[in-house]
Write a structure and sequence with these properties.
Largest sheet: none
Oligomer: single chain
Number of helices: 3
Order of helices and strands: HHH
Number of domains: 1
Number of strands: 0
Radius of gyration: 65 Å
């Protein structure tokens, strides 16, 4: 619509004014559209910032929980290491005691073998003494009751043979 003032104006000037008006309206429309886009982008950025803040809080909580778990594992690992060291110490002590027991057992076996051997020798000596005693009793009687008889010569010869046997055994023992 052309205003009454615009009818008296120069048509070139009027066209330039209308062009400026059109361009201004277009620029204002573009600025308004850009402002709307900026507002929408600002809202999206705000939402993103809020989501990022929420996610950061979740991440921080998860990191704190992971740190707590790592500290717990470190403490448990330290306790396990101490337990393993104690078990190793106990095993070493047991090994030493076992070696001492084996040594004592070996010594005891040796002592028992020596005592057994000595007991065998004592038994042999006891048998020899018993044999000598029984022979001495048999031979002592004819000496006490000595009478020149023919059977005494046989006893004397027997005594001589027994004495030689006893002497040989004594030399061997």
């Amino acid at each position: 619509m052309i205003s009454p003032v615009s009818q008296t104006m120069n048509p070139g000037l009027l066209a330039a004014g209308l062009a400026v008006d059109r361009e201004t309206n277009a620029a204002v429309g573009d600025v308004a559209a850009g402002t709307d886009r900026m507002a929408k982008n600002a809202a999206l950025m705000t939402d993103s910032a809020l989501l990022l803040g929420k996610n950061s809080s979740s991440v921080a909580a998860a990191a704190e929980e992971a740190l707590t778990n790592a500290q717990t594992v470190a403490k448990a690992s330290s306790q396990l290491s101490a337990s393993i060291a104690e078990i190793a110490s106990q095993a070493n002590s047991s090994r030493k005691l076992t070696l001492e027991a084996v040594t004592a057992s070996t010594h005891a076996q040796s002592t028992i073998a020596n005592l057994s051997e000595a007991a065998g020798k004592v038994g042999a000596v006891t048998n020899l003494i018993s044999e000598i005693a029984s022979q001495t009793n048999l031979l002592a009687l004819p000496r006490v009751a000595f009478r020149p008889k023919p059977w005494l010569r046989r006893v004397a010869a027997l005594r001589h043979i027994v004495d030689r046997g006893v002497c040989k055994r004594n030399n061997l023992a």
